[in-house]
Amino acid sequence: MEYVTTWFYDVLSFFGLYYKDAKVLFLGLDGAGKTTLLKVLKNGKVDKMAEPTTHAGKEELVYGSLKIEAHDLGGHAGVRRGWKEFFFDVDGVIFIVDSVDRDRFPEAKAALDGLLGSERLASVPFLVLGNKIDVPSSAGDAELRAGIGLMETTGTDPEATKSTGVRPIELFLVSITKKTNIKPAFDWLSAYLKRQVPGASHF
């Protein structure tokens, strides 16, 4: 029965008749690629001149079957202290790591650990993106997992894990500027987000 329901919603999504609404926080250290990802998702373009985010911003965009209320909260140390003010009614978290900047892996780990330890985000799916894999010196999967302390995740097959009650968290290696592996990552996140009734109002 669940397979039939999923197939039905997939067909509606294909024709643009059904979306999932989601409030998603875009988090990570400064320079990881949060704002660039938002631009790519919204208009398919890469803004190479994008300035560092100094204050929280909100974008509303459609990507695949998702209608996302995206909150880019910035990543500087001073800004990160205010992240918790946005931890209400969150449907998903995207945490982006610069996979080239090994010196900041411990800092990224500390920020991620703080998020995972928040009671308000205890049941929220976490999509972790290791960005900049187009750069030859970028860390591979095993090195990045060790660097940010993410050795155990729930796997890339949502159907096999949705009923376990474990908080969904998975790492995908991506290149935001090249749009590499973005779709599989968001397909994974979408599978854990709440379904909306076709025709329901959005935003």
Describe the structure using short key phrases.
203 residues; alpha/beta; Rossmann fold; six-stranded mixed sheet; 6 helices; 6 strands; 20% strand; globular; disordered N terminus; disordered C terminus; magnesium; P-loop_NTPase
What does this structure look like?
The protein has helices at residues 2-14, 34-43, 77-80, 105-116, 141-148, 182-192, and strands spanning 20-28, 57-63, 66-72, 92-98, 126-131, 169-173. It has 203 residues and is of the alpha/beta class. It has a single domain (2-192), classed as Rossmann fold (3-Layer(aba) Sandwich). The longest helix is centred in the first third of the chain and has 13 residues, at 2-14. It is globular. The model is unreliable at 1-17 and 195-203 (pLDDT under 50). InterPro entries: P-loop_NTPase, Small_GTP-bd, Small_GTPase_ARF/SAR, Small_GTPase_SAR1. Keywords: Endoplasmic reticulum, ER-Golgi transport, Golgi apparatus, GTP-binding, Hydrolase, Magnesium, Membrane, Metal-binding, Nucleotide-binding, Protein transport, Transport. It holds the Pfam family Arf. Mg(2+) binds at residues 30, 35, 53.
Would you summarize the structure shown here?
It is built from 6 helices and 6 strands.
The radius of gyration computed from the alpha-carbon positions, rounded to a whole number of angstroms, is 16 Å
For CATH, the homologous superfamily is named as: P-loop containing nucleotide triphosphate hydrolases
Biggest beta-sheet profile? 6 strands, mixed
The total count of strands amounts to: 6
**Count the helices. How many?**
6
Low-confidence stretches: 1-17, 195-203
Beta-strand percentage range = 15-25%
Structural class: alpha/beta
The total tally of domains equals 1
Give the CATH architecture.
Answer: 3-Layer(aba) Sandwich
Shape: globular
Secondary-structure element string: HEHEEHEHEHEH
Terminal CA distance? 30 Å
**Overall pLDDT, averaged?**
83
Query: Which range best describes the helical content: under 10%, 10-25%, 25-40%, 40-55%, 55-70% or over 70%?
Result: 25-40%
